[in-house]
Amino acid sequence: MSLLPWQTVYWQRIDQLIADNKLPHALLLAGHKGVGKRAFAEHLAKRLLCNDPQGSEPCGRCKTCELIQHETHPDLLHLSPEEAGKVIKVDQVRETIDRLHGTAQQGGYRVLIVDPAEEMNISAANALLKTLEEPGNNTLILLVVHQLGQVMPTIRSRCQRVDFALPDSGLAVDWLAEKLQLPPDKAKGYLGLAQGAPLTAYDWKSGGAMDLRANFFGGLADLLRARVSPVLLAEKFQKEDLRLPLIWWQSLLGDIVRIQMAQDEQPRINIDMRKMVDSVAKQANATLVLTLYESVQVELNAIQRHLNPNKQLLLEKLFFDWKELSAK
């Protein structure tokens, strides 16, 4: 995994710690999801495990680099939820720690990447805590964190933190345009939808999420025009992972709120939805829009905390409230 163009300043800091032999035993890589924290962690692991580093970079050719490339290096461990949307369980942590405490099979560093670290439940986090306190020699634990507030204070206090900001938009647009083979204006549009997170924009576009967004927003438009009922539309989407639709919906409501408060003349994020945003902003009660915005946030938080709400009922309530915005 290579460094991304906007990560040079972070890498210089870590590279200096390596050169000074002051690299801590645990780093907490925190910041907005989609800015490349996992890529940074993988690059650092590759640099530490490489048999023939070229200055501050891994060589990419030695046996170690080849093992990492094929995801078979015995001293590079990963810890993530077993399924998307689930937590990291205590048994996973204990099994991984047992491997981490063994002798490095290649004779150098042992590296553990936990991603995302906030998905450890309390038991799992407590199981990792002792290792953070006594990691052993030549051991590095990298915690990739998207929601810092969800990480236990005792975990945070035992790590050196590296905060990743959203990248410069010019660098991000150039990277995204090249990766997706798009004109810069199109890449800029997708970056805006992802609120400045280039890897999120890349994943949405390349992974088909934009089709889901189009279908979801199409359903919202149909509700406003009374072409579908909230119950039927809820049935259509209740089998989906609702995190992305709720994130998109909240950003749409945020555009509406800003126009109603005269902060913006057009959508800041959902430019392609300008017609619907303008229509709702003109006719809807501002208090109702803000209330719905907050309701979407509450339900999104519940899903992200794995509270497993009834998705059919959740969507029905929110869709009825959305439909009410068009009531005369």
List how many beta strands DSSP finds. Answer: 5
Q: So, CATH architecture of the largest domain? A: 3-Layer(aba) Sandwich
CATH C-level name of the largest domain: Alpha Beta
Rg from C-alpha positions?
23 Å
Average pLDDT rating = 93
Spell out the key features of this protein:
328 residues, 53% helix, 2 domains, Rossmann fold, alpha/beta
Summed up, what is this model?
It contains 15 helices and 5 strands. The chain is α/β, with parallel strands linked by helices.
What does this structure look like?
The chain has 328 residues and is an alpha/beta fold. It has 2 domains: 5-164, 3-Layer(aba) Sandwich (Rossmann fold), CATH 3.40.50.300; 208-324, Zinc Finger, Delta Prime, domain 3 (Up-down Bundle). The protein is 53% helix and 8% strand. The protein is built from 15 helices and 5 strands. Strands 2-3-4-1-5 form a 5-stranded parallel β-sheet, sandwiched between helices. Helix 5 links the parallel strand 3 and strand 4 (139-145). The radius of gyration is 23 Å and the shape is elongated.
Helix-strand blueprint:
Elements: H1 8-19, E1 26-31, H2 37-49, H3 63-69, E2 76-79, H4 90-100, E3 110-114, H5 122-133, E4 139-145, H6 153-156, E5 160-164, H7 169-180, H8 184-193, H9 198-206, H10 209-224, H11 230-237, H12 243-260, H13 274-283, H14 286-304, H15 311-324
Helix pairs in contact: 4-5, 7-8, 7-9, 8-9, 10-12, 11-15, 12-13, 12-14, 14-15
